[in-house]
Amino acid sequence: MKRAKRLYTLLGILAVVSVLTFCVLNYQEKQEEIKASGEVVLSIDPEEVTAFSWEYEALDPLSFHKDESWTYDEDSTFPVDEGQITSLLEQFRNFSAAFIIEDVDDLGQYGLDNPVCTIRITAGGEAHTIQLGDYSKMDAQRYVSIGDGNVYLAAHD
């Protein structure tokens, strides 16, 4: 009988400690708000772009500027396919997000503390920086930051 009381007392204490631990962890953990979107989060007219560059992992950065035509910054005699540059920039005409993650504290969990690729675009006097992070394991979509404090799951990579 004494043994059973002791066992029930220990089980009760364990249950109370487990519930308290669960409550404390949930109270301290800040939940980010995730919203389904599909809305355009960045709109850049390719015709207004005057400079375009990107850095991709361990590869050398590439940068271009446009006066009358597109020119490679490292070698002005290098032939640049303007159609390819326009095609790359066209992706940012109406850049939409499948999901928006607001109030992000830790960009590292999305691979954005050390991005896979950083794209810089100057258009209409405004500079835009787009960072590409990891792929979402659930959605197979890429995490993207456009510098506004939110993280987006890109509708198209």
Account of the 3D structure:
By secondary structure, the protein is an alpha+beta fold. The chain has helices at residues 2-28, 82-90; strands spanning 33-36, 40-42, 49-56, 62-66, 70-72, 95-102, 117-123, 126-135, 142-145, 151-154. The chain is elongated. The chain starts with a helix and ends with a strand. Residues 28-33 have low confidence and may be disordered.
SS elements, strand count: 10
Termini separation: 66 Å
Mean pLDDT: 84
Global geometry: elongated
Rg of Cα set:
24 Å
Structural category is alpha+beta
Please indicate the percent range of residues in DSSP E strands (runs of 2 or more). Answer: 35-45%
Proportion of helical residues: 10-25%
Task: Tell me about the largest β-sheet.
Answer: 10 strands, antiparallel
Number of helices: 2
Q: Secondary-structure element order, as H and E?
A: HEEEEEHEEEEE
Low-confidence stretches: 28-33
Tag the structure with descriptive keywords.
157 residues, alpha+beta, 10 strands, 23% helix, 36% strand
